[in-house]
Amino acid sequence: MKHHQTLLATAVVAVLAQLPIVAAAQTAKPVATAASAAVVPAKAPITAKSPSDWIQYDDLTVTPVLDDVSSHLAAARAALDKKDNAKASEAMQAAARALEAQGDRAAKLDHQRAAADLKAAKEVHAKMVALTKQLDATAAQIKAGKLNSTAELDKTIGKAQRADLERRWLVTDVTTWYPVADEPQRHFGAAVEAYAKKDYKAAAAEVRKAASYVRLEAARATGDVKKGLETANTDLQKTAAALDRGALKAEKDMDKAFASANHALALAHRARAAQSWARKAYDQAGYELKAAAQGLESGAAWTGAEAKAAAATAATDARAIGDKLASGGVWAKDEVAKGFESLANGLNKLGQSIGSTSKASPFDAGA
Q1: Rg of the chain's alpha carbons, rounded to an integer?
Q2: For 317-341, how does the pLDDT look when each residue is reduced to its tens digit (9 = 90+)?
Q3: Which of 206, 277, 292, 364 allows an S-S link to 285, with CB 3.0 to 4.6 Å?
Q4: Residue 169 has what DSSP assignment?
Q5: What is the pTM for the complete model shown?
Q6: Tens-place pLDDT, residues 88-124
Q7: 100 near 132, Cβ under 8 Å?
Q8: Greatest extent of the chain over all pairs of C-alpha atoms, in Å
Q9: End-to-end CA distance of the chain
């Protein structure tokens, strides 16, 4: 249990060690050769954060309040609980306007992005337009007194619509997703602490909160990476359900689910780092590499001391180049390639140790 008792503190220290981090999405000039380097001015720092609130639905699904859309939806639900239909209607309309603005961003995605990203963004935009109309219609129902509780609201905006809402994560910028990249690990640590106290309901709640971030990252992913995240989310939901029933008898079962989720998250971040690199969004690539490095370390921590030691070098290499790319420091293509390769090796070793068949894709630093 000793490594579990120190895990949360270790994760927090790891996050603080990476601060300050960077908000603005600017790109460095590409390097011409492996030996040449690029330099851009340093950028303004931002800080890590945790969500201030959560939305919990009747089916036990939870989602963090992280942006304008979720903030207004949470306000609408709170007003409904207080029977303040006028305020709830206003909040729902505000959510519709915020979603509309995010939809506009989805429609204007940089055409340098990969074709898969552009196709996904178009699909997300179409769903956002439909959902905006639905939110406006729901606001009108609330105002007219035809919808008076969160239970009725959840029937109007069901699980499928909530999934569509979460797909807007595809177009969120770095200032929204990166500050909470380590939140799953924080909740995993809290779940272990609650389990040790035999507070299984609290442990289940923490696992569901961690799963909500895995779900959001799945919305940004494609292909096998997306499937891996969806599988990890399903496993976490099963773990939470077992905890609710008091049927999870071995802590090692939680450890495996947590390690698998961290592994899937790290693979997703590395894949997006490669995509960002290919379209010369070097700062975005840096943030994704840093998040992947954290995921690798976190996953290895649940697997044991040997795996943790093996992951340390790979995470250090990836984080070092990630810091340079994200902050506009000096970098060269050969060290970028080394960072990606080292991270891939670390992730693949971790995958082998937890029985995962998912592997990091090859990286091409380009000409």
Answers
A1: 21
A2: 999 999 999 998 899 999 999 999 9
A3: 277
A4: G
A5: 0.84
A6: 999 999 999 999 988 887 777 665 566 666 677 778 7
A7: yes
A8: 68
A9: 49
Helices in the chain by DSSP H: which ranges?
A: 2-18, 68-81, 85-107, 115-143, 150-156, 159-166, 174-177, 183-196, 200-220, 223-245, 251-278, 282-301, 305-327, 333-354
**What span, in angstroms and rounded, lies between the C-alpha atoms of 45 and 282?**
17
In the beta sheet, which residues pair with residue 54? 64
Q: Which amino acid, 302?
A: W
Task: Cis check for the bond before 64: say yes or no (omega within 30 of 0).
Answer: no
Residues in contact with 321: Cβ distance below 8 Å, sequence separation at least 6, in sequence order: 286, 289, 331, 335, 336, 338, 339
E strand residue ranges, the chain = 21-22, 45-46, 54-56, 62-64
The gap from C-alpha 4 to its chain's centroid, in whole angstroms, comes to 23
3-state secondary structure 254-284: HHHHHHHHHHHHHHHHHHHHHHHHHCCCHHH
Torsions phi, psi of 55, nearest 5?
-100, 125
DSSP codes joined into one string, 193-225: HHHHTT-HHHHHHHHHHHHHHHHHHHHH--HHH
Give CA separation, 115 vs 121, 276, 348, 360, in Å.
Answer: 10, 13, 27, 20
Token pair recorded at residue 89: 């209607």
